[in-house]
Amino acid sequence: MAGKDDYLDRIASATANAQSTLDLMSQANPFKAQGFSPRTEKVLRKWGVESPEQLVDLSLDYIRTIPGVGRLAMMEIQLYLKAVSDLL
Fold this sequence. Notes:
It is a single chain. The chain is an all-alpha fold. The protein has two domains: 1-29; 34-88, no CATH class. The chain is 72% helix and 0% strand. It has five helices and no strands. The protein has helices at 2-28, 30-33, 38-46, 60-65, 71-87. The radius of gyration is 18 Å and the shape is elongated. The mean pLDDT is 84.
């Protein structure tokens, strides 16, 4: 049985390591971690939005006025906002 326990311990350790890596990636680039394209990230950062979480406090009407936010960027933003609202 020691073999089975050792195997389960290795799986648990690998899972923890993978989660830690994902957490670090999310901290390093929160936009990428939330599925935003590099272009949308660049536009939002240029206008002072440093993390996706800040979008929650902005109205869609305001976001639409940001130069560079086109149809695809709005789609990404709306998908993110819907996912966040579904979690609440």
